[in-house]
Write a structure and sequence with these properties.
- It is a single chain.
- A five-stranded parallel β-sheet has the order 4-3-2-1-5, sandwiched between helices.
- The protein is globular and about 50 Å long.
- It is of the alpha/beta class.
- The chain has a single domain, classed as DsrEFH-like (Hypothetical Protein Ychn, Chain: A, 3-Layer(aba) Sandwich).
- Helix 1 runs parallel beside helix 2.
- Helices cover 32% and strands 17% of the residues.
- The longest helix is centred in the first third of the chain and has 14 residues.
Length: 144
Amino acid sequence: MAGAFCFNTKDFNSNVKFSIVVYAAPYSSEAASTAYNFTKTILEEGHEIFRLFFFSDGVHNANRLAITPQDEVNLQSKWDSLISNHELDSVVCVTSAIRRGVINQQEADRHDLSATSISDSSEIAGLGQLIDAAIKSDRIVNFG
């Protein structure tokens, strides 16, 4: 599906540094899937992803405990692989994550829970990381 999001790289003087913000849960709309395909395509085009930021219901994309029927696409797994394979900086909003049960070991310990649910490829952090991405990126693209 690489061609679905092609843009003319001649419009840019050099590689463009993108940050991607995903607000949508994996299966509530096409937004999370579109974000994934867009991210994959711009990497294939030779551009850079400065940061992925999962916010609001978008934090569900980083839930490693979600189970998908065998005949459906496991978008969480696809995100995890893309992030790991390209060593992307992937941040999950701490407030959004805790409210939705997407937690790391630190939050599990803090709330006396026995399990974690966040993918190993992502980290939990605050909105400061989104502000930092806005400052340091050439473009921010929002999905959802």
